[in-house]
Design a protein that fits this description.
Pfam families (chain A): Erf4
Largest sheet of chain B: 3 strands, antiparallel
Structural class of chain A: alpha+beta
Shape of chain A: elongated
Protein name (chain A): Golgin subfamily A member 7B isoform X4
Family (chain A): Belongs to the ERF4 family.
Number of helices of chain B: 30
Main location (chain A): Golgi
Distance between the termini of chain A: 11 Å
Strand content of chain A: 5-15%
Oligomer: heterodimer
Strand order of the largest sheet of chain A: 1-3-2
Subcellular location (chain A): Golgi apparatus membrane
């Protein structure tokens, strides 16, 4: 039983960050926020290409929606002007709302798709919208089986 | 005033702000108290309320411009930049609307500055869409607060015009009572407002011009778009619309962090081969089939050879081993032979030509269960397969039955994987196939993709031009990968072929993002590094080259013949994996030597090209790191990264030599461009930059380069900007503002640069 407990502990802490892959911004359309659809080579054997591309495409869609110059943003600007910008204390801007949506989307993607594959997507806003950071974790336990087995055997011996 | 660098928080930095506030609030208050009552009675009752509203608007915009974060980009985390600063180029080019825009490495913030981003030395941070640092609000004006600054200027202009004109009306009506308090005060108010109206009007006009042209003050003053096209403009009307109506972008710093924790626990899923390989198959199948007769030996040697650069192979090998373990442990393998056999075929053909008469694909085929009928179907009747619906995934029992064979296939693929680095892009697909099949909804779709992919790859053998959509969809890297080998094999003189002039900006953009450390075997590494090499891009761009097409048609016949040979064959005896590997090794070793010779030739050529680059007139986009230009080791501050010798074979060097033909720079810049163009340590780079630029006149070439450096040299002496304030000859007016100080500071730091460069800007003030 002690061995089992030890193994569980090993399992729980055995994912270690190996490296990070970065998806850069796509500036081909100016300074609007878009990320490149290019698949990083580090993720070749970690995730299906289509999954990541779908995620990036959805993110790009969200950002396009957030940065759309249109009636909604104009009204927001007018309202802000009219209230001498005090409305910003009470109300969330449209961009911020979309950012929250994006954050939720990334969280959901992480939980459903990326974490099971040992990857973690970082919200680009934390990197100043310059890169989309994907942390790559490795299974330390399976990668270094001897230490864990030695500890488990030590636990067993006890 | 948001928290900035040390300079922004100095007491002296608050003097202009306080002056501006005092003048604005004081004058306006006096106007409202002494002049407005008479105006309300005489001119109309609406005058004071309107003036009050306008004044409030001025104050609100002033407050927003002062306190709002301009779009400060947070400093990059350490792990974002894995490459040694000295090996990385100072500039990275991206394509913005067809115009090549350079992104400069910010040594303080540790990232390549996005287009239009600039580093404010007063505040010591990078600001997105940096306009200028305004001393009168003691804040940077950038993406987020430019509209407030502009509206502040506009409203201040109107307010001052209103105060001046109404005050004048009052004074004119009370000419005989000028000694009275009200009159005297009004006289003072109109003289102050009249005095500051001229510079404010000028600045407002200047910014109206900038907005109509879609430029920032930084770009205007540095002359970035004087001779060229501004890719950031949307047209006059749209620029104004964007200014007023665009959504307010979020702040990047000091964000509330409310994210939930995501637990990452092994075991990790790996993508199925079916899902991954079709992409590679489509992209690679064409080239591989076409060049298999010539390139297989080269490819095998490459795979073997890339074991030598130490950092590159371990990762793909490691992952392959892990996926191997996963295969063994989890037994969720789907029949891997189906999509990969077409890819393996060229390799295996070489093997068969070498010694083994029985290609392992035969072995793979024999062990395929009846349920997994996709493989033979796809090979023999591609057309039929295309229209067939996707069969259900074969039971895992069948898969486990073919475990032994899969290990064979694994072993053969491991050769392709040892190619290392970026090349594992292709080979990893093979490994992935053997990894565990993720138990998500992916398999059916991936199988479908695989199915059509394998059939398509077979089709591509017969009809090389038949499936552009799939190939193009799959992106360039697989194509580039094989093109690279094509280049090595076709003429053997690939080293002499000059890299292309046009690069895919996507690749250039991500070239630096390799997490792999650079290594000391430059030539090998350069050709096998994760980023695309120039020859990749050359072939990406030049995929209509006659050699390519010729080989395409030539090899197609042989390949189709081989396919037909293999197709009808039924069960064949198994051959041991060991025997297969022995036969492989001979071919491999022969190709290794051939490959090494080619790379030696490559390296010599690059050395020549580099020496030419150093002394040649044109540098193009990339600036080659030069040992001479780097600061001496002794001057390096502790803890900073030391200079490294120019890596001749490094990716950046290859790119820089490849860009020699750009011809964008003129000769006067060449010497300046060689100096201190590596990212370098922070402390040392600054004096070098300013030193190199001080003596250079600004050229008329696309002034992004020199202008950018000048712009960088400008903020570098941070005290200059504020120090020049008291020395400004004509700008006693607080409203001459930011622009005058900016221009003067610029003049101060670049004494030798030509004076005629910004007539518009200076003229606007005078």
């Amino acid at each position: 039983m002690a061995t089992e407990f030890h193994n569980l502990q090993e399992l729980r802490h055995s994912a270690s960050l190996v490296t990070k892959a970065f998806i850069q911004r796509d500036y081909s359309e100016g300074t609007v926020c878009r990320f490149q659809a290019k698949f990083p080579s580090e993720l070749d054997n970690r995730i299906e290409r289509t999954l990541l591309e779908e995620t990036v495409k959805t993110l790009n869609g969200y950002y396009a929606e957030a940065e759309k110059v249109g009636g909604r943003s104009y009204l927001e600007g007018c309202l802000a002007c009219a209230t001498a910008y005090t409305v910003f204390f009470c109300m969330e801007t449209r961009y911020e709302k979309v950012l929250r949506k994006i954050s939720g989307f990334i969280q959901e993607q992480n939980e459903k798709i990326f974490a099971p594959r040992g990857l973690l997507l970082t919200d680009p806003i934390e990197r100043g919208m310059r890169v989309l950071e994907i942390s790559i974790f490795e299974d330390r336990a399976s990668g270094s089986s001897s230490p864990s087995s030695s500890t488990s055997s030590a636990g067993g011996a006890r | 005033m948001p928290a900035g660098g040390a300079d922004a928080l100095r007491p002296s930095a608050f003097i202009p702000v306080c002056t501006a506030v005092c003048l604005l609030v004081g004058s306006s208050s006096l106007f409202f108290v002494f002049t407005c009552p008479w105006l309300a009675v005489t001119v109309g009752p609406a005058v004071p309320p309107c003036s009050a509203v306008l004044f409030l608007f001025v104050l609100a915009n002033f407050t927003m411009a002062t306190f709002m974060d301009a779009g400060v980009l947070p400093v990059a985390a350490d792990d974002e930049d894995k490459d040694d600063e000295f090996r990385a180029p100072l500039y990275r080019t991206v394509d913005v609307g067809g115009v090549q825009v350079r992104m400069k490495w910010c040594s303080s913030c540790h990232f390549y500055r996005p287009p239009r981003c600039s580093h404010c030395s007063v505040c010591d941070h990078c600001v997105e869409d940096f306009d200028h640092h305004c001393p009168w609000v003691n804040n940077c004006i950038g993406r987020r607060n430019y509209r407030y600054f502009f509206l502040f200027l506009l409203s201040l202009t109107f307010h001052m015009i209103g105060v001046f004109s109404f005050g004048l009306v009052y004074v004119l009506h009370h000419m005989d009572e000028l000694w009275r308090l009200h009159c005297t005060v009004t006289l003072v108010v109109i003289s102050v407002s009249g005095l500051f109206l001229i510079p404010v009007l000028g600045l407002t006009g200047f910014h109206l011009y900038l907005v109509s042209r879609g430029r920032t003050t930084n770009e205007q003053v540095t002359g970035k778009f004087q001779g060229g096209v501004n890719p950031f403009t949307r047209g006059c009307c749209n620029n104004l619309e964007y200014l007023v109506c665009s959504p307010i972008s979020p702040r990047y710093t000091a964000r509330p962090r409310g994210r939930a924790v995501v637990h990452i626990q092994p075991p990790f899923l790996r993508p199925a081969l079916d899902g991954q390989t079709p992409a590679k198959v489509r992209g690679n199948g064409l080239q591989r089939q076409d060049f298999q007769n010539k390139k297989n030996s080269v490819e095998l040697s490459d795979m073997k050879q890339t074991k030598t650069p130490p950092p590159l192979p371990p990762k793909p090998e490691h992952s392959l081993l892990r996926s191997l373990a996963a295969v063994d442990e989890r037994k969720t393998i789907i029949p891997v032979s189906i999509p990969t056999v077409p890819q393996l075929r060229p390799v295996l053909e070489a093997i068969s030509r070498g010694s083994s008469p029985i290609p392992p694909e035969q072995l793979l085929k024999t062990t395929e269960q009846p349920g997994s009928s996709k493989g033979p179907d796809s090979r023999e009747s591609p057309v039929r397969v295309n229209q067939q619906p996707v069969p259900a995934p074969p039971p895992s029992g069948a898969a486990s039955g073919s475990l032994q064979l899969n290990s064979l296939a694994l072993a053969s693929r491991s050769l392709t994987l040892k190619h290392g680095g970026r090349k594992s892009h292709l080979a990893a697909a093979y490994a992935d196939a053997l990894g565990s099949n993720p138990p998500t909804a992916a398999p059916p779709s991936s199988l479908l993709a695989n199915h059509s992919g394998s059939s398509l790859s077979y089709d591509s053998l017969m009809h090389p031009h038949a499936d552009p959509p799939f190939m193009s969809h799959r992106g360039v890297p697989p194509v580039g990968y094989h093109s690279h080998y094509v280049s090595l094999g076709t003429d053997g003189t690939v080293g002499q072929r000059p890299p292309p002039h046009s690069y895919s900006p996507v690749f250039m953009g991500v070239a630096r993002r390799s997490p792999q450390p650079r290594e000391t075997s430059p030539s090998l590494q350069s050709l096998t590094a994760r980023g695309p090499s120039p020859s990749f891009q050359g072939f990406i761009q030049r995929d209509q080259s006659p050699t390519f097409q010729g080989l395409l048609s030539r090899d197609l016949a042989s390949q189709s013949g081989a396919v037909r040979d293999l197709g009808p064959q039924g069960a064949t005896p198994q051959k041991s994996a060991a025997g297969r590997y022995d036969s492989l090794s001979k071919t491999i070793m022969a190709s290794i030597h051939e490959r090494r010779e080619l790379e030696e030739r490559d390296r010599m050529l690059r050395l020549q090209a580099r020496s030419q680059a150093l002394y040649g007139p044109d540098f193009g986009i990339y600036d080659i790191p030069s040992r001479r230009s780097l600061p001496p080791d002794s001057a390096r501050p502790p803890g900073s990264r030391g200079p490294t010798p120019p890596a001749y074979g490094s990716r950046e060097f290859l790119m820089s030599t490849g860009v020699l033909g750009y011809g964008l720079r003129t000769s006067p810049l060449s010497s300046s461009s060689t100096s201190s163009l590596t990212r370098g340590p922070k402390a040392a780079a600054a004096p070098l930059l300013s030193g190199s630029l001080q003596g250079k006149a600004r050229s008329s070439s696309p002034a992004y380069g020199p202008a950018d450096r000048q712009a960088q040299a400008l903020p570098l002496p941070p005290s200059t900007a504020t120090a020049t304030l008291p020395r400004m000859p004509s700008s006693s007016s607080p409203s001459a503002p930011s622009y005058a100080s900016y221009a003067t500071a610029k003049r101060g730091s670049l004494p030798h640069s030509s004076e005629g460069k910004d007539p518009v800007a200076l003229g606007g003030l005078k």
